[in-house]
Fold this sequence. Notes:
By secondary structure, this protein is an all-alpha fold. The chain has a single domain, classed as Endonuclease III, domain 1 (Orthogonal Bundle), CATH 1.10.340.30. Helix content is 45%, strand content 3%. The chain contains nine helices and two strands. It has helices spanning 21-29, 38-51, 56-69, 75-79, 83-90, 99-115, 125-130, 151-162, 170-179, and strands at 4-6, 12-14. Strands 1-2 form a two-stranded antiparallel ribbon. A hairpin with a 5-residue loop joins strand 1 and strand 2. The protein is globular and about 50 Å long.
Amino acid sequence: MSSLVTGPDGLARPAWAAASDLLRGYYDTEWGMPVTDEQGLFERISLEAFQSGLSWATILRKRPAFRDAFADFDPDTVAGFDDATVEALMQDARIVRNARKIRATVTNARATVGLRGRHGPGTGLAEFVWSFRPARTPVPGRIEDVPTTSPESVALSKALKKEGFVFVGPTTMFALMEAVGMVDTHLLGSHRRGCSGLWDAEGKSTGDPW
C-alpha cells in the first residue's frame, strides 16, 4: 500500500504532510531543504527539542511566538538569558512552557557560542553539524521504510553532548538531519523527492551544500 496521498493539486505527499494547510506548506517549501547557517541550525535544534512529546504541528503553529520569545533564535542574545528571563518565558502562554526545554535552549545557545572556532578557523555550529552528513541517504518507498536513527545521528548526538548541548538524542538528531536536508527521506514518488539537489536517484551525494 502506498504511503502517499495525492492532493487536489495532483501532487503526491506523505499523509502527515497532507493533514493540514500548515503542514502542507511546511513540507512543500521548507522540510528537507538545506539549512547551512548558524542561526537557522540553532532554531531547528531548539524547535526539535521543544517538539519532544508533542506533535510537529503544535510547534509549527507556535513558531512565530517562539521566534518572538527567543529573539529570532539569535544565539548570542539567547545565551544571555538569565533566570528572570526564563521565569518570564514560563509565563508566556504562546509557547511551550516547559522549564527544562526553555533552559535547554539557553544552554544550547551558550554551547553554540562556545563552539565557534573551536575546531578550526571559520568553524561553528553549521559546519560542525553538517560534518556528520552521510555519503548516502535512504530511498524509502513507504513511510515504514524511513528510519528514526542512523549511525550518523548517533555520532552527532554524542558529539553535540560533548560540546555541551542537551536534548540532542539520536532520534531528535535524525529528525533534524531530515529537516535540514542532511538526508532525504521524502518518499519515492513524492513531488519533493530530490528537492535539496544534494542526492541522486540512488541516494548518493551529488555535491556540497555550501
